[in-house]
Design brief:
Layout: H1 11-35, H2 51-63, H3 65-68, H4 93-102, H5 122-138
Helix pairs in contact: 2-5
Length: 149
């Protein structure tokens, strides 16, 4: 049945069908980005670690890896931390402390908000930060001054 004033029978239904199909495809693609596999999002080279970073590796595995992946490589639940966005000039150590203590609103990625992690002790947090920084350096991520665009 034609819609009144459409000027041609069947076309409004076809147009509506195309719009619905495009919307469904767009939603499906965005869902793949948000909830894809648990596979690592980046490749991470693991260097020989300092003693503090080895402690951080254990604390990271117990508290962070579920979302941020083994060695900070990211998953469908959380972004990779071994990524230039998290270089010390853009996200200094205080940003990691704040994220763990208070949580953080989604801003760089589409993984949702990060809740506070009150179970992480100050000692574990210092070790986790050292671990992440050593991984970053081994993977070519160094301090770059943050410039607002």
């Amino acid at each position: 049945m034609a819609v009144k004033g459409s000027g041609s029978s069947g076309r409004p239904g076809l147009v509506l069908g195309v719009i619905v199909a495009l919307a469904a495809a767009t939603f499906g693609i965005s869902r793949l980005w948000d909830t894809g596999s648990r596979a690592a999002l980046v490749d991470v080279e693991v260097p020989a670690l300092s003693e503090l970073a080895r402690e951080g590796e254990q604390a990271f595995a117990a508290n962070c890896a579920r979302c941020h992946g083994q060695n900070g490589a990211g998953t469908d639940r959380g972004p990779p931390l071994i990524f230039d966005t998290y270089n010390p000039g853009h996200h200094g150590d205080a940003a990691f402390v704040s994220a763990v203590r208070f949580g953080v609103q989604q801003h760089h990625w589409r993984f949702g908000n990060m809740p506070p992690q009150p179970q992480v002790t100050d000692q574990d947090l210092a070790a986790i930060i050292r671990y992440v920084r050593e991984l970053q350096e081994a993977n070519g991520i160094f301090y770059k001054p943050h410039v607002m665009n």
